[in-house]
Design brief:
By secondary structure, this protein is an alpha/beta fold. It has helices at residues 15-27, 40-51, 95-112, 125-136, 149-163, 209-230, 235-249, 294-313, and strands spanning 7-11, 32-36, 61-65, 76-79, 117-120, 143-145, 170-171, 174-175, 183-184, 190-191, 194-195, 254-256, 259-265, 268-274, 277-280, 283-287. The N and C termini lie far apart (44 Å).
């Protein structure tokens, strides 16, 4: 039998979509890529630029199109299209325009790629993930968002820098909304297997409550700083999304804080938000209930309420 060739289609050839293609191609995540955008000149230019560097990457093919049928046969469709977050604008304020886009996009996708997993990156990612799942009619495990994978990476980087340890040895998650109401799960965080809240190593910095507050404030406001400086975040989210795609297509059973529909997680129902989850070829296999204290539990419920309120105002 002929070996299956993995195909990823990316909706939106803006800074995020093009960077996801770039990061995934460098990592050799798939063998076929499609970059789709209604702006044909833009998508053609991005594809040409990427193809000119193909000899320096693992072998793959990349095609661009303004015809949604190019996504036919995709294993995963990554949705990045939508209005761009402006300086000072919250992710939730983007919701109306991007939900309207989904109402026309998702039914078209379902016609040409009904068997694909849908990975949502468009902000506000938790709201859009919920909307896409509802519009597609797919099981919730097959529709998930990039969620707080990037936020968790930011948290780990800052903790690692403060403690002067390798970032790969920090295991800590941000959960809830990918946005202002997100919550760091300090209770479950570890460094080299040691509980972060009990970290005390001679010759190394401590991590006080004030340090944790400052670090998390930097995590929560990181995107605003980047957008003010250069107009968009693209590199880190591109790498984070490529890592999610790798976990899916390689069936890695990897634990990632992706956004998916909650059905009883810590009492939270009928909302998409990020929690540590097992991700594999089928999508989100299971969500993992972390040990949380009462403040973290209440913070997650408030975050869920924030997301749910926006979803309801949009008619879902």
């Amino acid at each position: 039998m002929r070996e299956h060739v993995n195909k990823i289609s990316i909706i939106g050839a803006g800074a995020v979509g093009a960077t996801i293609a770039y990061a995934a191609m460098i990592r050799g995540v798939a063998q076929q890529y499609v970059l789709y955008d209604i702006n044909r000149a833009k998508v053609d230019a991005e594809v040409l630029d990427l193809n000119h560097g193909l000899q320096f990457m693992p072998m793959a093919t990349l095609h661009g199109s303004d015809d949604i049928s190019a996504c036919e046969g995709s294993d995963v469709v990554v949705i990045t299209a939508g209005a761009k977050q402006q300086p000072g604008q919250t992710r939730m304020e983007l919701a109306g325009a991007n939900v309207a886009m989904c109402r026309s996009l998702v039914p078209s996708l379902m016609k040409v790629a009904p068997d694909a997993l849908l990975l949502v990156v468009t902000n506000p990612v938790d709201v859009i993930t919920y909307v896409v799942q509802q519009l597609s009619g797919l099981p919730s495990r097959r529709v998930f968002g990039s969620g707080t994978v990037l936020d968790s990476s930011r948290l780990r980087f800052l903790v690692a820098r403060h403690l002067n340890v390798a970032v790969q040895n920090v295991h800590a998650f941000v959960a809830g909304e990918h946005g202002d109401s997100e919550i760091p799960l300090w209770s479950a965080a570890t460094v080299g297997g040691l509980p972060l809240l009990g970290w005390s190593v001679p010759g190394r910095a401590s991590l006080t409550e004030e340090d944790r507050a400052r670090i998390f404030d930097d995590v929560r406001n990181a995107a605003y700083h980047i957008i003010r400086g250069k107009g968009a975040t693209n590199y880190a989210i591109g790498m984070a999304t490529a890592r999610i795609l790798e976990a899916v297509l390689n069936d890695e059973q990897r634990v990632l804080p992706v956004s998916s529909r909650m059905e009883g997680y810590l009492g939270i129902q009928d909302v998409c938000m990020s929690v540590p989850s097992i991700v594999n070829r089928g999508g989100v296999e299971a969500v993992l209930e972390q040990p949380v204290n009462e403040a973290e539990r209440e913070g997650l419920r408030r975050s869920a309420d924030t997301i749910r309120q926006t979803i309801r105002t949009l008619g879902f």
